[in-house]
Amino acid sequence: MIVLGIDPGTATTGYGVVATDAVASAEATVVGRVAKSAHGAPRLIECGVIRTSPRAPLHERLRDIHEGVTELIARHHPDALAVEDVFYARNVRTTLVLGHARGVILLAGSTAGLAIHEYPPALVKKAVVGTGAATKEQVQFMVAKLLRLKHAPEPADAADGVACALTCVLNAEGPLARLRLGATAGARA
Amino acid sequence: MIVLGIDPGTATTGYGVVATDAVASAEATVVGRVAKSAHGAPRLIECGVIRTSPRAPLHERLRDIHEGVTELIARHHPDALAVEDVFYARNVRTTLVLGHARGVILLAGSTAGLAIHEYPPALVKKAVVGTGAATKEQVQFMVAKLLRLKHAPEPADAADGVACALTCVLNAEGPLARLRLGATAGARA
């Protein structure tokens, strides 16, 4: 299974492509972490950010984001798109503009026929770090740990995209695996 | 000039296609209403709504909206896309979801290379009815008047799409023409 994870933003959209051999079956769930650390360990294929020009009008930035996501889908043929929900605690104008970016991202996945998953930011942090109140640094640290990377993905937005893809992978392995890994991750962080 | 006007919504997106022979020049502005009532009068080509299934997931509804707008552009070859801004006085969740719809609409226009105009709802009402506090019924009434239609466009969302296109046409004829027509419209309403 290949998952494209996206952390939407109008200026910087973070993304991560994560692959796993693990099958979403009862057996895989029971085997749990042992299977994961053997053949089923999730691995990072690519991560980065799609940047748009702050001086460009909104519709051009949306086009850049849509093109960027469409290119990623064409390059990696993911099975699923995992998109982080937008915080709506910030100011309403910001939330509205982020909604635009999220709209064109979901469209790209829908047009390509991908399974689409949406996760609130707190759930992504909980799945990867073990607590919904994790900092950006903790997310970067745990993403690197779980994917056995030498360095944490930079910038933090890229790590957030990877974390979102990881959340989807862990969820596909069953809630048990997710919770177990989440607990371990929390202890390690 | 052909303008596609859109009033975005996740359930119902209203649209109107308005054409005018008027040129956006200083002369056209000076001639003002006389020119408009002669050869330059704006006329309605098509209006309606794009409806999405309330039971479909958001990403499918966004795809339907995007496809609908893309089809309208292919059919009418408009020069400009005029999109109403989203109210953000309502609850934040609604605003966020409307932002998604607006995002895919702006994307469709941007991909087609159209000039893109965004108008706050109050400005659309002001341009068409003469007051930013106009009711939906007043907008429908004035849209029918200005375009010499026998009946007001139905449903109200379609009339809002037409009103948005009209705002763009009136703006292109210069702020003077817009204000003059706006004042007349207000008196007539």
Describe the structure.
The structure is a homodimer of 189-residue chains. In chain A, strands 3-2-1-4-5 form a 5-stranded mixed β-sheet. In chain A, helix 3 (58-76) packs parallel to helix 4, helix 5 packs across helix 7 and helix 7 packs across helix 8. With 189 residues, chain A is of the alpha/beta class. Mean pLDDT of chain A is 85; it is low at 24-38 and 178-189. Helix content of chain A is 53%, strand content 17%. Chain A is globular. In chain A, helix 4 (92-111) links the parallel strand 4 and strand 5. The A-B interface holds A 57-60, 62-63, 66, 86, 88, 92-93, 95-104, 106-107, 109-111, 116 and B 57-60, 62-63, 66, 86, 88, 92-93, 95-104, 106-107, 109-111, 116.
Short description:
2 copies of one chain form a homodimer. By secondary structure, the first copy, chain A, is of the alpha/beta class.
Topology:
Two copies of one chain form a homodimer.
Chain A: E1 2-7, E2 12-19, H1 26-31, H2 33-37, E3 43-51, H3 58-76, E4 80-84, H4 92-111, E5 115-119, H5 121-128, H6 136-146, H7 156-172, H8 175-188
Parallel strand pairs in A: 1-4, 4-5
Antiparallel strand pairs in A: 1-2, 2-3
Helix pairs in contact in A: 3-4, 5-7, 6-7, 7-8
Approximate shape of chain A? globular
For the CA atoms, what is the radius of gyration of chain A? 16 Å
| Ends distance of chain A | 27 Å
- Counted by DSSP, the helix tally of chain A is 8
Q: Taking all residues together, what is the mean pLDDT of chain A?
A: 85
Largest interface: A-B, 27 and 27 residues
Order of helices and strands of chain A: EEHHEHEHEHHHH
Number of strands of chain A: 5
- Strand adjacency order, main sheet of chain A: 3-2-1-4-5
Assembly of the depicted chains: homodimer
Low-confidence stretches of chain A: 24-38, 178-189
